[in-house]
Write a structure and sequence with these properties.
Keywords: Aminotransferase, Pyridoxal phosphate, Transferase
Order of helices and strands: HEHHEHEHEEEHEHEHEEHHHEEHEEEH
Family: Belongs to the class-I pyridoxal-phosphate-dependent aminotransferase family.
Structural class: alpha/beta
Pfam families: Aminotran_1_2
Cofactor: pyridoxal 5'-phosphate
CATH superfamily of the largest domain: Type I PLP-dependent aspartate aminotransferase-like (Major domain)
GO molecular function: pyridoxal phosphate binding; transaminase activity
Strand content: 5-15%
CATH architecture of the largest domain: 3-Layer(aba) Sandwich
Radius of gyration: 21 Å
CATH topology of the largest domain: Aspartate Aminotransferase, domain 2
Largest sheet: 7 strands, mixed
Number of helices: 13
């Protein structure tokens, strides 16, 4: 029998709590509020069919050939044009989803025991992507308006222990759904610049606003001090795995080299299809239909929570966009312990603890409102409330 010796970093690679919970949805009758999956109702199937045919008829051989590591030039130009500050397409690196963007950033900027700052809580996938580099992830206190700037400064570290970067999701954050205010953004960018700490701004949900668009990106305020990440997964289709990085020109070459080592380039066919779909302003016409769908489903979930959680000491966020809301359970109720009881009642959610870099709040959980129907949402929230009451009754 062969004895395989694993690298030390392999010990940092753990299964995604979300992916493991998604396996529960194989059980017949389960209503999953766990996954961060966009609604298939929002996929523009006809436009993709037409774009695939056009790409193959017009330049099929090139679409199926190896391509440049930077990405398809018209798509890079389209990304630069859609952003609300001056971006040179030479700053745009097309990635295989924004998850790869996180991986590349971690490889380029983090060493073992490098200090990095994250929100409380933060995106679980980012913690997983950075983990193989073995950094020290430090949670910065956060509230409904985002990261607390005073604590950001307090946690920044000094000398060799100074934070290498800070990772933030200002818009409709995963997992909480909160949005950073204009005042908080301005203060954070100023403080980060004064402390010379680069900001990694992850913005996969920013176009999914329900009432009004969120404030300007952090990167627009200090382009040389930020790396911006975006994705077409939430506004077109996640299966294509098309994301992007916008980086200062001084650090772009190293990110490009990391990309070349990882996979040479993001699939050229997929890039060309996306470029074809979004030309002529398609996103301006399509994204409002996603907003309307998700807003209706968010409203359904908020109404169901108000009705079903009456008399329980349950709190939740009221997101102004995006795909998620965050729930805090009553005193003494552990979300991980509650999950199997909820599954018995045919509803699944994601316990909140894995979203914390340290000191997890075990009373929290994340709900997604975008894939279930309105009737399923109402049924699922009623089942969740019943599970909480049964859990409490047993003490």
């Amino acid at each position: 029998m062969t004895n395989w010796t694993l690298a030390a970093r392999a010990a940092t690679m753990n299964p995604s709590a979300i992916r493991e919970i998604l396996k529960l949805t194989d059980k017949p009758g389960i209503i999953s509020l766990a996954g961060g999956l966009p609604s298939p109702k929002a996929f523009p199937l006809n436009e993709f069919t037409a774009a695939c045919n056009t790409v193959m008829a017009r330049d099929g051989a090139a679409a199926l050939q190896y391509a440049t590591s930077e990405g398809y030039a018209p798509l890079r130009q389209a990304v630069a044009d859609m952003l609300p500050w001056a971006v040179d397409p030479d700053q745009v690196l097309i990635t295989t989803g924004s998850q790869q963007a996180l991986d590349l950033i971690g490889k380029v900027f983090l060493d073992k025991d490098s200090r990095m700052l994250v929100e409380t809580p933060t995106y679980l996938g980012a913690l997983q992507a950075f983990a193989p580099q073995e950094p020290i992830a430090v949670s910065v206190a956060s509230d409904d308006d985002g990261i607390l700037v005073d604590d950001f400064a307090a946690q920044a570290g000094t000398g060799a222990n100074k934070a290498r970067l800070a990772y933030v999701l200002p818009n409709f954050q995963n997992p909480t759904g909160r949005t950073m205010t204009e005042a908080r953004r301005a203060a954070l960018v100023t403080q980060a610049a004064e402390l010379d700490i680069p900001l990694i701004e992850d913005n996969p949900y920013g176009d999914l606003w329900f009432g009004e668009a969120p404030p300007a990106p952090l990167t627009a305020r200090n382009p040389d001090g930020c790396i911006y990440m975006g994705s077409f997964s939430k506004v077109l289709a996640p299966g294509l795995r098309i994301g992007y990085i916008v980086a200062p020109k001084a650090i772009y070459p190293k990110l490009l080299q990391a990309k070349q080592a990882a996979d040479l380039h993001t699939p050229g066919f997929n890039q060309r299809v996306v470029a074809e779909v979004i030309r002529d302003g398609f996103l301006d016409r399509h994204v409002p239909t996603i907003r309307a769908l998700y807003k209706q489903q968010r409203d359904t979930m908020l109404a169901a929570l108000e009705h079903e959680m009456a008399g329980l000491d349950v709190k939740w966020t009221r997101p102004a966009g995006g795909m998620f809301l965050w729930v805090r359970l009553p005193e003494g109720v552990n979300a991980q312990a509650l999950l199997p009881e909820a599954v018995e009642r045919n509803v699944a959610f994601v316990p909140g603890a894995p979203f914390y870099a340290d000191h997890p709040d075990t009373r929290t959980l994340r709900l997604s409102y975008v894939t279930a129907t309105s009737n399923e949402i109402r049924t699922a929230i009623a089942a969740l409330a019943a599970a909480i009451r049964a859990h409490q009754a047993r003490g």
